[in-house]
Amino acid sequence: LYVDHPLAEGQSIPLERDQAHYLFGVMRLSEGAPVALFNSRDGEFVAEVTLAGKRGGELTCIAKTRELQMPPDLWLIFAPIKKARTDFIVEKAAEMGARRILPVGTDFTNSERIRQDRLQAHAVEAAEQCGGTYVPEVADLMKLDRLLADWDEERQIMFCDETLVGAAEALGEVRGGKWAILIGPEGGFSEAERKRLHALPYAHAVSLGPRILRADTAAVAALTVWQQQLGD
Ligand code: SAM
């Protein structure tokens, strides 16, 4: 279970209503039951249910079971698409170990609004599901232009460009370091955006094969390629 609370031996953790509902209503846990906890900072702890109520409750940390496992310093930048597909991208990015997830507005972005809180909740669920000790932060929607204007040039961009033909520029051999994967919207990037991205010295244009993938498929494919070539 992810909790936004410091974790240490003997620490008591108050539960919010939805957490209590999940643990005691859905999972049917009662007082004395063990629960694994993480908070993206202190690693994983085993805790015990010390108070089980309908609208709240309390857990008490017993012992640390795992150190924090930070994912690689990889961001996934994507243009939000339809709701279910956007949810899918966030879920898969959290499972595959992205550290930050950044929805961006581009020239052809389909959706100008996102529910950041909902997407963040999906990231929490995905991290819980895959036994992670870290939940990636989902940023609020911002314009790609603005993001690139403040870009830290040490962070390389794996720019997924479906118009590339033939061999893509090599990603390099450098494992570790700061990276971001960039995926476009359903309509792809505009000519002006593509030109700008190709001109950035820290952007590496990459093909994911000869077929045009849906943006959600492209996100998973790109995360896989990155993990395979550059992941730890
Ligand atoms: N019209 C489809 C859809 O409705 O989802 C295609 C979307 S495709 C244009 C969306 C993004 O996925 C592209 O901007 C690109 O970043 C990435 N992408 C898709 N296929 C790709 C490929 N073969 N190589 C590299 N990137 C690809």
Automatic annotation (TrEMBL):
Matching InterPro entries: Alpha/beta_knot_MTases, PUA-like_sf, RsmE, RsmE_MTase_dom, RsmE_PUA-like, tRNA_m1G_MTases_N
Gene3D superfamilies reported for this sequence: 3.40.1280.10, Hypothetical PUA domain-like, domain 1
Keywords attached to this entry: Cytoplasm, Methyltransferase, rRNA processing, S-adenosyl-L-methionine, Transferase
NCBIfam families: PRK11713.3-5, RsmE family RNA methyltransferase
Localization (cell): Cytoplasm
The EC number(s) this enzyme carries: 2.1.1.193
GO cellular component assignments: cytoplasm
Family: Belongs to the RNA methyltransferase RsmE family.
Protein name: Ribosomal RNA small subunit methyltransferase E
Domain Ribosomal RNA small subunit methyltransferase E PUA-like: 15-56
Primary enzyme class: transferase
